[in-house]
Specification:
The structure holds two protein chains of two kinds.
Chain A (H helix, E strand, L loop, with lengths): L8 H14 L16 H4 L25 E6 L3 H12 L4 E8 L2 H15 L8 E3 L3 H6 L5 E4 L6 H10 L3 E4 L7 H16 L4 E3 L7 H11 L6 E10 L13 H7 L5 H4 L2 H4 L2 H11 L3 E9 L11 E8 L4 E8 L6 E8 L2 E4 L5 E4 L4 E4 L2 H7 L5 H14 L7 H20 L3 E2 H6 L29
Parallel strand pairs in A: 1-2, 1-4, 2-3, 4-5, 5-6, 7-10
Antiparallel strand pairs in A: 7-11, 8-9, 8-15, 9-10, 11-12, 12-13, 13-14
Helix pairs in contact in A: 3-4, 3-14, 6-7, 7-15, 12-15
Chain B lengths: L5 H9 L13 H5 L6 H21 L7 H4 L2 H7 L2 H7 L10 H17 L30 H5 L17 E4 L6 E7 L2 E5 L16 E5 L2 E4 L5 H11 L7 H10 L32 H15 L2 E3 L3 H9 L12 H4 L16 H4 L31 E7 L12 E2 L9 E4 L15 E3 L2 H4 L19 E2 L3 E3 L6
Parallel strand pairs in B: 4-8, 7-11
Antiparallel strand pairs in B: 1-2, 2-5, 3-4, 5-12, 6-12, 7-9, 9-10
């Protein structure tokens, strides 16, 4: 029933990561691995002093400590994946409650937990419906693992913080301006309560990116002057409507194709790459002008390609492009230009000087030799659990909200044909909530593909 | 313990800093001094304030203090270091925060330094309760009390017919509001100031001949009674994109089609009173829309005065700095003589609401005498919008006698006449000024910012002129 391309998103990522490891390690660069790159010798000026920016500790397994119970809301592919990632990240962690809008989703994850981890989720801890998140959060859990379609994330996070729960939030964390503000407020409340929040921007917990970040902070490419980020891939999956499905059920089961549920693929997927640039540069976008269109998407009301020109706070530009169309050139990576050189994650993490010489390359083989756990989807849970157990709270939602909002700005500019600004978009009333949101039939006349310049 | 401030203590006890659900009491020094961990700032400010209070205690009677003036924002910022607010209020997004507050506080966090925003710009009553201050969207229509509503027999049925070029009292149909219009004969006058006029600015130069057609001008600045009548009939709900409003109003046929102001944040009268006090804090666009509405209501052609009409009317036939006797040098706080003598306030105080007699707020028209044309508060009280864009070179660009000049190019609008906080030098008949659009909106957290209400200027208003029908001559 579910139509997959040959290469799913996540397996694509894994494949490209492996491909990256095969890349050439430049002659003479063997001594320039990871952090002992001799920046002092080369006279680089650090962009930030060590200790003034966050570097996660990424051991194979979280330290032992108090038992932590999690509840999973959104039990589809990502929710099931995150549940297993969480359980693999530490000893003394378990899952005690599940929630989804569909019974079959809850049951399939319960089965998986039983088979793979010997965890029993009794029937009274399997919650179904739009309010299932509340029941899960109220089930004496410590951590909410929220992996629903993105539209629902902000309200779920808000409630979790209200109830003093730590959270793992799959990205993106909002799809519109109203959701953005909900996230920002809840994130501040989480900080005040010493709660930990990790978002599914797993590059922040991927050692190759973390080491690249250190290099750039140490001044390896000089001052950042711009960048281009990409998520160009083949068509993503979609589902045909089945007899007996309500409008709601159809859209949610096909959610990566619907604007209100996913935020469109620039927000839902490409946010990863935009996030790398906002993370490395520490800059917010002040404005965006973009375009996009729908060429070959089968279901839903989304585009399948975007190209955005972001103007950042200090006036430099970020070009972002994303596409989900078969038979085209693919590339999922980031490129950042600096005054002394450039960095890219395309084909391994590589820094070149202005003459094109490789001056640093991440050694993936060394990572594999030194660490048992190299999966960033698990490592983000390792860090979350360590932060909770070590009482050193991590709050990633505020940072992710920036890249998430950037993606929203790009999307809205493309939909409307107008320039969008940070100031206007963060304060706007833009909401993707359908007027008649319910789990049955809905007014489908409002779900249309936007036409730039038309006001529609 | 805080010196001789009985009034301040009473309002403090009623404020949320004492009268709250948590039982925590915030004391005078918590807000009025910089935080204690800024040791030097804290104690040096303490010494200065202490010395000032001691001086005040020894030399002044605390009942003479103008407490209302001191509680206005422009004074309050001197006594409330913003870092003291932020010291305690570290989380601007506490649980239960509303979406509007999130929007406003996000705006504050991102712009506080850049735009010098203060917590008390919006939370002026946090430390001292003020029943005339509201934090939130204004609801209802001020002035529309029950009795007013019911007694519609007092409503005017039709506008005043004008059959001759003489003064008339306009009646706004469907309301109980009327106001006096003065017939201003056309003529020629010298616009700008002579080179020897004290305190003249470059933009008043050169003095040049201007001739004008006759017009009617409102005796007083547009009042709250008039403005709320307009608001009641045209107010718009929610936020329509500005372009849509502009387009709509260009095409509007009839009163019902005009889109007027959205509800303001707080009480735009600042708690100073309404009635015949001048309406304030509206934008130039709002003032223009008022004129459009008034024209539809009365079948006449109302508009904002041109800058030339305004100065001609303000001078009332005089060519001196003011329309009454006296030199700006004698009245002003500026200049060499102020080191020796106090400024004179006689005569000017009878005609102008300015820094020396205003008590830091607008005053009703009854508190001043009219000028030779029978117009009140042309100088002082509130700045008045003109139909012209501001160009400092406007006069220099004219040659010979100019007829009915109007400047249409520029970024800001001309405002004339000074305001309640102006020095005497800035309420001269020739003194020019202009809007500061971005600065006057800097606290407004909305996007797009309001096209109807300014957040950061209080002393701005307008008066209307009416173009006489050609059949009158």
């Amino acid at each position: 029933m579910k139509k997959e391309n040959n290469l799913t998103r996540r397996s694509f990522l894994k494949t490209s990561a492996v491909a990256g490891a095969v890349g050439v390690i430049g002659a003479g660069s063997a001594g320039l691995l990871t952090s002992c790159s001799g920046n002092e010798k080369s006279g680089n000026n650090p962009l930030k002093e060590p200790g003034t920016y966050y570097i996660p500790e990424l051991p194979d397994l979280a330290a032992d400590g108090k038992e932590l119970k999690a509840g999973v809301v959104g039990c589809g592919g990502r929710g099931s994946g995150a549940a297993i990632n969480f359980l693999n990240a530490a000893n003394g962690v378990t899952i005690v409650a599940l929630g989804d809008v569909f019974q079959d989703r809850v049951d399939s994850l319960a089965d998986k937990l039983k088979t793979e981890k010997n965890i029993d989720i009794p029937a009274e801890k399997r919650f179904v419906g739009l309010d299932a998140y509340k029941q899960v959060i109220d089930s004496e859990i410590d951590i909410l693992i929220d992996c629903t379609p993105p539209y629902f994330r902000a309200e779920h996070f808000k409630y979790a913080v209200e109830k003093n729960k730590h959270a793992f939030l799959e990205k993106p964390i909002c799809v519109d301006a109203v959701g953005y503000r909900t996230i920002v407020a809840a994130a501040k409340q989480a900080q005040a309560k010493n709660l930990s929040v990790v978002t599914g921007t797993q590059r922040h917990h991927q050692r190759s990116y973390v080491e690249s970040y250190k290099q750039i902070m140490n001044g390896a490419i000089g001052e950042i002057t711009g960048g281009t980020v990409y998520w160009n891939q083949s068509m993503l999956w979609y589902r045909d409507r089945q007899p007996g499905w309500s409008d709601f059920e159809f859209m949610v089961r096909d959610w990566v194709n619907w604007k209100w549920l996913s935020g469109d693929h620039i927000v839902e997927q490409h946010v990863h790459n935009i996030d790398v640039f906002t993370w490395f540069s520490g800059l917010k976008p002040v404005s965006a002008v973009g375009f996009g269109s729908r060429q070959r998407r089968v279901t839903g009301d989304q585009y399948d390609n975007f190209s955005i020109d972001f103007t950042m706070e200090n006036g430099i530009h970020l070009h972002s492009m994303c596409r989900q169309i078969d038979g085209c050139a693919n590339n999922v990576s980031e490129f950042i230009q600096g005054t002394k050189g450039s960095w890219t994650s395309n084909g391994g993490h590589v820094i070149k000087d202005l003459a094109g010489n490789v001056i640093w390359q991440y050694d993936e083989e060394a990572e594999k030799a030194n660490f048992k756990q190299t999966d960033p989807y698990t490592l983000e849970h390792v860090n979350l659990i360590n932060c909770i157990r070590g009482n050193k709270p991590i709050e990633q939602a505020s940072e992710t909200a920036v890249s998430n909002m950037a993606a929203i700005m790009g999307r809205e500019s493309s939909y409307t044909g107008q320039q969008t600004t940070w100031d206007a978009m963060t304060a706007s009333q833009l909401s993707y909530t359908p007027a008649d949101l319910n789990i049955g039939q809905m007014d489908m006349s409002g779900f249309n593909v936007p036409v730039p310049g038309s006001g529609k | 313990m805080c010196h001789v401030h009985p009034h301040a203590e009473e309002s403090w006890r009623l404020s949320t800093h004492v009268n709250n659900g948590s039982g925590v009491m915030v004391n005078c020094v918590d807000c009025h001094l910089p935080p204690k961990d800024n040791t030097w700032e804290h104690y040096s400010a303490k010494v200065v304030l202490g010395a000032r209070d001691l001086w005040g205690y020894l030399t002044k009677d605390s009942t003479d203090f103008d407490w209302d003036s001191k509680s206005e924002l422009e004074h309050a910022v001197k006594y409330i270091p913003n870092e003291s607010c932020v010291k305690c209020h570290q989380n601007l997004f506490p649980e239960g925060v509303t979406d509007d507050a999130v929007t406003a506080h996000l705006y504050y966090e991102e712009n506080a330094e850049k735009l010098d925003l203060q917590c008390i710009s919006c939370h002026l009553d946090a430390g001292h309760y003020n029943p005339d201050y509201a934090h939130g969207q204004m609801t209802g229509i001020p002035g529309m009390s029950a009795s007013y509503d019911v007694d519609s027999s007092l409503f005017y049925k039709e506008a005043t017919p004008v059959n001759a070029f003489t003064d008339y009292r306009e009646q706004i149909p469907g309301t109980a509001v009327s106001f006096q219009m003065r017939a201003i004969e056309g003529g020629t006058f010298k616009m700008g100031s002579p080179e020897k006029e004290p305190f003249r600015n470059d933009d008043e130069s050169p003095r040049h001949e201007v001739s004008l057609d006759p017009f009617f001008m409102a005796e007083v600045e547009t009042t709250w009674d008039q403005y709320w009548a307009f608001y009641a009939e045209t107010m718009s709900e929610g936020r329509t994109p500005p372009e849509v409003v502009y387009q709509n109003n260009i095409q509007a046929m009839g009163v019902d089609a005009i889109s007027g102001p959205t509800s303001p944040f707080g009480y735009p009268d600042q708690g100073w009173g309404q009635g015949d006090r001048p309406a304030i804090t509206m934008t130039h666009y709002a003032a223009e829309t008022f004129c459009q509405w008034l024209s539809e209501k009365t079948g006449k052609k109302y508009r904002l005065p041109t800058e030339a009409e305004w100065e001609y009317a303000a001078r009332g036939g005089t060519e001196t700095a003011y329309f009454f006797p006296g030199s700006p040098k004698a009245f002003s706080d500026h200049g060499f003589m102020r080191n020796v003598f106090k400024p004179v306030t006689d005569s000017i105080s009878a005609y102008v609401i300015y820094s020396k007699n205003s008590h830091s707020r607008t005053q009703p028209p009854s508190s001043v005498l009219p000028n030779p044309f029978g117009l009140k508060n042309m100088l002082g009280n509130v700045m008045e919008y003109c139909a012209d864009k501001y160009d400092p070179q406007a006069y220099a660009n004219r040659s010979g006698e100019t007829h009915n000049p109007l400047v249409t190019e520029g970024d800001e609008w001309v405002v004339r006449g000074g305001l309640y906080s102006s020095d005497a030098s800035d309420v001269r008949s020739a003194a020019r000024s202009h809007t500061r659009h971005d600065d006057w909106l800097r606290t407004d957290p909305q996007q797009p910012k309001s096209i109807w209400w300014y957040s950061d200027i209080k002393g701005i208003g307008f008066r209307v002129v009416c173009e006489p029908d050609s059949t009158l001559f």
